[in-house]
Amino acid sequence: MVWCSLLLTLLTQYTGSRAQSVLTQPPSVSGALGQRVSISCTGSSSSIGGGYGVNWYQQLPGMTPKLLVYHDGRRPSGVPD
């Protein structure tokens, strides 16, 4: 099995006043090459949605973070589903 270690950092943006949010996710996931993996993210309903945008980044060892998903599930050009 090929290990794909992902460090995902979540950034939350609020359109109104700034608030502290708490989001929980696993530190890494693994899977075979070409296998689809799912990464959970949980938080209170006031943390996710309701004016907050959740951005997903992938950071491989020794690399800078890469934006994968932003706002309501949009992906930058070149990032596959």
Distance between the termini: 22 Å
DSSP helical segment count: 0
Helix content: under 10%
Order of helices and strands: EEEEE
Low-confidence stretches: 1-17
Identify the overall geometry.
globular
User: Would you tell me the structural class of the helices and strands?
Assistant: mainly beta
Number of domains: 1
Gyration radius, in Å: 14 Å
- The total strand number stands at 5
Main sheet summary = 3 strands, antiparallel
Instruction: Round the mean pLDDT to the nearest integer and report it.
Output: 73
Name the beta content range. 15-25%
Sequence of strands across the biggest β-sheet = 1-4-5
Domain Immunoglobulin V-set: 24-73
Protein name: Immunoglobulin V-set domain-containing protein
Organism: Gulo gulo
Signal peptide: 1-19
Topology:
Elements lengths: L9 E5 L8 E2 L17 E2 L8 E7 L7 E4 L12
Antiparallel strand pairs: 1-4, 2-3, 4-5
How would you describe this protein?
The chain is mostly beta strands. The two termini are 22 Å apart. It has one domain (1-81). It is 0% helix and 25% strand. A hairpin with a 7-residue loop joins strand 4 (52-58) and strand 5. It contains no helices and five strands. The chain is globular. It has a three-stranded antiparallel beta sheet with strand order 1-4-5, with no helix packed on it. A two-stranded antiparallel ribbon has the order 2-3. Keywords: Signal. InterPro entries: Ig-like_dom_sf, Ig-like_fold, Ig_V-set, IgV_Light_Chain. It comes from Gulo gulo (Wolverine). This is Immunoglobulin V-set domain-containing protein. Residues 24-73 form the Immunoglobulin V-set domain.
